[in-house]
Amino acid sequence: MFIRAYLRASTSEQDANRAKSSLKKFVSGFSKRIASFYIENKSGNSLDRPELIRLLDESESGDVLLVESIDRLTRLSPDDWKTLVASINEKGISVVSLDLPTSHLTFGSFPSDDFMRSILSAINNMLLEILAASAYKEYRERERKQKEGIVKAQQKGLYHGRQPDLEAHDRIASFTEAGFSINKTAEAVGVSRSTVIRVRKRLKNLD
Q1: pLDDT tens by residue, 114-164
Q2: Would you please indicate which residues are annotated as catalytic (active-site) residues?
Q3: Domains and CATH numbers, the chain
Q4: Which candidate in 35, 36, 76, 203 could, as Cys together with 80 as Cys, close a disulfide (CB 3.0–4.6 Å)?
Q5: Active site located where (predicted)?
């Protein structure tokens, strides 16, 4: 079994390496190590991700695709998600995600009883589908709100330039609501202080 970690961020403003230490710490708890890291700055809403494709090409049956959360792997539409899952299943790869506890059984003591194995596999697959669908729904909802926000900002004469990254915007908003400082928010999201300040200001103007 080779553990292949996939780390993704949407834009170059975000630090795709941010979760590396968390993934290392997670697998070390099972006395395992990560064989390879595949890191890229690409939207999770697209199948055109060279590093993810390379991971799949280099994987063998029994290998593990490790991610911090399912939304790092996919924000794909239902049809594109089916395409990705088909590729994963065809290669015989197991998906393990820190936010999907049932997937952790891949590294632990999986029941030897065939019936229980089937039940747990079915539950894991169902939860994986739910998280994938939720990630896509959240992406579309943020996209809708972002477009509405841009229209409002344009009407107020506040918006100029390219559309900000949706995922970074959402994460900054979440950490802001949780009371994180500008420095802590920038570190957690993997962006600059100026980006955090700019997004916070825009959020305040749109309230």
Answers
A1: 777 788 889 999 999 999 999 999 888 887 877 777 667 666 766 555 555
A2: 10
A3: 3-135 (3.40.50.1390), 145-206 (1.10.10)
A4: 76
A5: 10
